[in-house]
Amino acid sequence: xxxxxxxxxxxxxxxxxxxxxxxxxxxxxxxxxxxxxxxxxxxxxxxxxxxxxxxxxxxxxxxxxxxxxxxxxxxxxxxxxxxxxxxxxxxxxxxxxxxxxxxxxxxxxxxxxxxxxxxxxxxxxxxxxxxxxxxxxxxxxxxxxxxxxxxxxxxxxxxxxxxxxxxxxxxxxxxxxxxxxxx
Length: 183
Fold this sequence. Notes:
Blueprint: H1 13-26, H2 32-39, H3 43-48, E1 55-59, H4 63-70, E2 75-82, E3 85-92, E4 96-99, E5 102-105, E6 113-115, E7 120-129, E8 135-143, E9 148-153, H5 164-177
Antiparallel strand pairs: 1-7, 2-3, 2-9, 4-5, 5-6, 7-8, 8-9
């Protein structure tokens, strides 16, 4: 007897991911955290389901190198998204250093804090349309649960256009650290 699925047989995880990939291929510009919540998968999984042209991943052990590179870009936007808050801070990313178990950001910028960078398991480079408006470029630091620890967005000018030099730096960093997508 053939092993055919009927309409009332339960969807497999593979079917669910295929549906998610199709959804994101048709509409890649929504809030990915909302998609993750709605579908019951991690933000990392949602990001990985974006079309390959919109995302790439570097290993988490490259997080410090990514932070050092971005510290040379000029003003960026750091974003922390929780279920209760989307917090943005704009300015140059300070050079960080490890101390007392944290990667510490301090000095001369409105951006500061203490990051458990050792918990970063992957660094996502996401370049996609956002909310039907303009393109966005974000570097997303993922923890072992597949959640975003924080995101760093390429800066924009006073007309809300991406800063071209930062877009070039984003692309160069992605090319240097991310393996080509196998499909």
